[in-house]
TrEMBL record:
Name of this chain's protein: histidine kinase
Every Histidine kinase domain range: 1-176
GO biological process: phosphorelay signal transduction system
Enzyme Commission number(s): 2.7.13.3
Organism: Leptospira interrogans serovar Australis str. 200703203
Length: 182
């Protein structure tokens, strides 16, 4: 239990540092499937009780490789998965991830059936320090950091909420050559 608490505290500190002082983005050729799986495994390890009743569906061909920063995208997926788990509030549910590749873009859809986001909050969720959680739970920086990570990669992040579901769509340029993005 103490190890998990320390890991959660470290994640909060990482969020605060990422928000306050973003690093220069350096990309490398990496497999998005491996990055998604690593994020899923880390979230399950850090939140074993929250993730106990959750089923996962990851639709992505292995070796979907393109230029991105794997550490930053893992952080993005950890934040999205963590938000889903918190929304389930120890209940049963499903987190679905689908990767679609076009000629110029990679689209990653992260969807849960945890009840959705109320219409009056959907426009606020990417704002720094915004949270709908109880006081003392999280920093309200997770989705703001996700938005920043996607922007750094010259991509787009959007959200839709419908029929008690929430769907985040991460759209990133599909580049296969070594590139440094500032």
């Amino acid at each position: 239990m103490m190890k998990e608490d320390l890991t959660r505290a470290a994640m909060i500190v990482t969020d605060i540092i990422s928000f306050a002082k973003p690093d220069r983005l350096v990309t490398t050729s990496a497999d998005i499937y491996e990055t998604i799986q690593k994020a899923r495994e880390n979230v399950i390890w850090v939140y074993p009780v929250l993730s106990k009743n959750i089923s996962w569906e990851i639709l992505c061909e292995p070796r979907t490789t393109f230029q991105f920063n794997p550490v930053k995208l893992e952080r993005l997926f950890i934040n999205l998965f963590k938000n889903s788990l918190q929304a389930f509030d120890y209940g049963e549910g499903k987190i679905r991830v689908e990767v679609r590749k076009t000629r110029n873009m990679v689209h990653i859809i992260v969807e849960d059936n945890a009840g959705g986001i109320p219409d009056n909050l959907i426009d606020k969720i990417f704002s720094p320090f915004f949270t709908k959680n109880k006081t003392g739970i999280g920093t309200g920086l997770g989705l703001s950091i996700c938005h920043s990570i996607v922007r750094e990669h010259k991509g787009e992040l959007s959200v839709k909420s419908f029929e008690k579901k929430t769907r985040f769509r991460v759209s990133l340029p599909f580049t296969q050559y070594q590139e440094y993005i500032s």
